[in-house]
Amino acid sequence: MMDTSDEWISSRTGIRERRCVTNQETSDLCLLVAEKMMQQKNLNPKDLDFILVATMSPDYSTPSVAAQVQGKLGAANAIAFDISAACSGFVYALSMAEKMIRCGSTKGLVIGGETLSKLIDWSDRTTAVLFGDGAGGVLLEANPQKKLLKEKLATDGTRSTSLTAGYLQNKNPFYSEDSEGSYYFRMTGRDIFDFAVRDVANNIQEVMKDTPVDYLLLHQANLRIIEKIARKVKMPQEKFLTNMDKYGNTSAASIPILLDEAVSSGKITLGKQQKVIFTG
Hints:
Layout: H1 6-13, H2 26-41, E1 50-54, H3 65-73, E2 79-83, H4 89-102, E3 107-115, H5 125-128, E4 133-141, E5 163-164, E6 186-187, H6 189-208, E7 215-218, H7 223-232, H8 244-247, H9 254-265, E8 276-279
Helix pairs in contact: 2-3, 6-7
């Protein structure tokens, strides 16, 4: 496969374990998440108004993962669609869901799910040591007393080729141009690292201005990135929850998985007023 070691990986990324599917697709993982949330709240799937799935590793270009989940779950009244925004996907989907609730929807699911193992070139050490599979989600319900306190969304398309995956080559008989695109992950690691430390930290500082927070749940890409961001925004490391040591980088799934673990451990209490920052 490739020349590497556990020490090399963990010292540079903080990653010690990952999860990899054997016979499941992204829609299978997302359906499990949806079913678990419905069972926990004893809800009828027909009561859902929307199902949003954030993913960069769908089963197909179409149908969407969300549509497959909607059909298998029996959520006949829910609008369902995917959001493809890679590591920012869950944050974007959460923002979209909040707007839908403000426009009259009362209940819906936001799920982040990935099977990134199918996008990995297992001979490329720059990417093969980073990514894992997983899914997580939240059930949102309308509440006139609750809302997002602050929001800042941004996109930098000038860096769009710093991380690419899933290239679909045009194979129609009239297309003659050669392409260097790759189906597998290709990443300029230094660009990603610099962007995260500079731009993500600046966005956190802007959102936190005059607003103390309890915890920060950042996308779980690399422990060294999070450590640098913590120093830059001058906040104690313990406020930055992490779990990439167990799962690696799961892209759109990383934040909901981390949130679920924070709730299960008691750090975040549902129904209690706590201020939490999500960044993708």
